[in-house]
Design brief:
Helices cover 77% and strands 0% of the residues. It has 130 residues and is mainly α. The chain has 5 helices and no strands.
């Protein structure tokens, strides 16, 4: 149940992040980020609702790409938060709270994609109960 709520929330956030700046000129790197975020959203959705869309090898390969993407995004987040804190736009506690909240959400994304790529499902079997 919680994975389904998380998947729906992530789909809403991903949709909002993709459609909000559409009036701006995207570079090829921005479109690459959009594709990776949409792929991650789709994999989390497939995991939460027990759907088979990708095979395990593709999902596992995407997991490595997604983790590399997250490292780049987290580094840019740190630089942006540092610039905004030093400029006095936001307080330090707010930047730390936002960074931690985003990081926790990303941990759940990685966990769902990892579990999906290894064939884990939401369903309980009789052997798992006993």
């Amino acid at each position: 149940m919680w994975w389904k709520l998380f998947a729906c929330f992530q789909m809403f956030v991903t949709y909002h992040n993709i459609t909000t700046p559409l009036n701006q000129n995207y570079t090829w790197l921005d479109w690459l980020y959009v594709g990776i975020a949409a792929g991650a959203c789709l994999l989390v959705f497939c995991y939460a609702f027990d759907k088979r869309f990708y095979n395990a090898r593709v999902a596992r390969s995407f997991l490595y790409i997604f983790v590399a993407y997250l490292v780049v995004i987290k580094c840019t987040d740190i630089v942006q938060f540092h610039g905004r804190v030093t400029a006095g736009e936001i307080p330090l506690w707010s930047a730390i709270a936002a960074f931690l909240a985003l990081s926790v959400a990303n941990v759940f994304e990685v966990l769902a994609i990892w579990r999906y790529s290894h064939g884990k499902t939401q369903r309980l079997t009789l052997t798992a109960i006993s």
